[in-house]
Amino acid sequence: MTQQVIHTDGLRRRRPTHAVAVRWGARTVTIGGDAPVVVQSMTNTPTADVEATYAQTVALARAGSELVRLTVNTPEAARAVVELREKLDRAGIWVPLVGDFHYNGHKLLADVPECAEALSKYRINPGNVGKGAKGEENFAMMIETAKRTGAAVRIGVNGGSLDQALLARMMDENAAKGNLLTPQAVLREALVESAVSSADAAVRLGLPADRIVLSAKVSAVPDLLAVYRRLSERCRYALHLGLTEAGIGSKGIVASAAALACLLEDGIGDTIRVSLTPAPGSPRTEEVVVAQEILQSMGIRAFAPMVTSCPGCGRTSSDLFQRLAASTQAFLRERAPAWRERAPGFESMTVAVMGCVVNGPGESRAADIGISLPGAGESPVAPVYVRGEKVASLKGPDMERDFQDMIEKFVLSTYGAR
């Protein structure tokens, strides 16, 4: 169980959107309306490799991805979706699966109807369904399938795969008006037009507006802000946010946080994904953690306690507080799934790990539970505070384990009896 925290200062008001229910079995994830902003992610394994895709889907779901998207690009991948869904169900993992379709989605959904039934949501890119009348026919086939299966649909436009015929037409119209807009502004408007007109076409085909989510993703922060602000003016469809091809490491994290935070503060966005290029050997779950921390740092939702810790300075005598801060954050995330079942409400708990006497005691007292480690020249004892009261002093090689034990007891005693 997670909780949503809404600002009370009047600055943030969620943009009114249709509430889209994405269902599988006992699990319903609502996107839009008054629902919390939803975190989602996507596997990067070959979907036809069921074991690898299953392992990554489980890891993403356990990390907190509330929807998991899969590449469905071949008949083998489509058939694997069915086996994957069955395997997840047997394990009691009810996370809804989203099929990511490009070019041949209409054919795969028709040829492997079990895949269409196993997916809770289809992602359709209007730029990749075909050209002219054939494209309209292919799009209509996918919408008809969604109507039959009850699946939701994300109509996802991307800057790198925009319908070139639409873009050329809008460029010509702009030229005929004396080039009132720059080429970049026309491109942005074309992204919005593609998304909204495709959604409206789906509604005309009989798909309810409360089964549609829109996205119009680009890789530059200013473009993303402009496109989504315009998109939010044009429609009331639920919106999926994400900076596509955000990049690797700090570049991808910073760019995604900058873009998503601005839009979320404007009340724009019902579901988000942070599209990070994973560093070699790093877990795919990193993008889930970053998305959660963006929402949590803005006070929108709480997923797991976050550690307040100092950056260190000449007063800190060793890397002990750095190691303890890292291990404490890892411990909190590791224990979160169990606490979610046994101690609802723990997500908003605050934990402090500080490195010296200057701000250490004060920050530790201000947290629900905090520890102030000794700095240079200080007594080698670390006082622990629980909600402002000093309750223990820790020292020696077992300090990390002892502090974790105290956190565990605090969580269960404070939140577990509810």
TrEMBL record:
Keywords: 4Fe-4S, Iron, Iron-sulfur, Isoprene biosynthesis, Metal-binding, Oxidoreductase
Domain IspG TIM-barrel: 28-291
Gene Ontology molecular function: 4 iron, 4 sulfur cluster binding; 4-hydroxy-3-methylbut-2-en-1-yl diphosphate synthase activity (ferredoxin); 4-hydroxy-3-methylbut-2-enyl-diphosphate synthase activity (flavodoxin); iron ion binding
Highest taxon above the source species: Bacteria
Start and end residues of each IspG C-terminal domain: 307-409
Top EC group: oxidoreductase
Cofactor(s) the record lists: [4Fe-4S] cluster
Biological-process GO terms, alphabetical: isopentenyl diphosphate biosynthetic process, methylerythritol 4-phosphate pathway; terpenoid biosynthetic process
Enzyme Commission number(s) from the entry: 1.17.7.3
Reactions accelerated catalytically: (2E)-4-hydroxy-3-methylbut-2-enyl diphosphate + oxidized [flavodoxin] + H2O + 2 H(+) = 2-C-methyl-D-erythritol 2,4-cyclic diphosphate + reduced [flavodoxin]
Pathway involvement of the protein, from the record: Isoprenoid biosynthesis; isopentenyl diphosphate biosynthesis via DXP pathway; isopentenyl diphosphate from 1-deoxy-D-xylulose 5-phosphate: step 5/6
Cofactor info, note text: Binds 1 [4Fe-4S] cluster.
Chain residues that bind [4Fe-4S] cluster: C310, C313, C356, E363
Known function: Converts 2C-methyl-D-erythritol 2,4-cyclodiphosphate (ME-2,4cPP) into 1-hydroxy-2-methyl-2-(E)-butenyl 4-diphosphate.
NCBIfam families given in the database record: ispG_gcpE, PRK00366.1
PANTHER family: 4-HYDROXY-3-METHYLBUT-2-EN-1-YL DIPHOSPHATE SYNTHASE, 4-HYDROXY-3-METHYLBUT-2-EN-1-YL DIPHOSPHATE SYNTHASE (FERREDOXIN), CHLOROPLASTIC
Family the UniProt entry places it in: Belongs to the IspG family.
Record's protein name: 4-hydroxy-3-methylbut-2-en-1-yl diphosphate synthase (flavodoxin)
Annotated gene: ispG
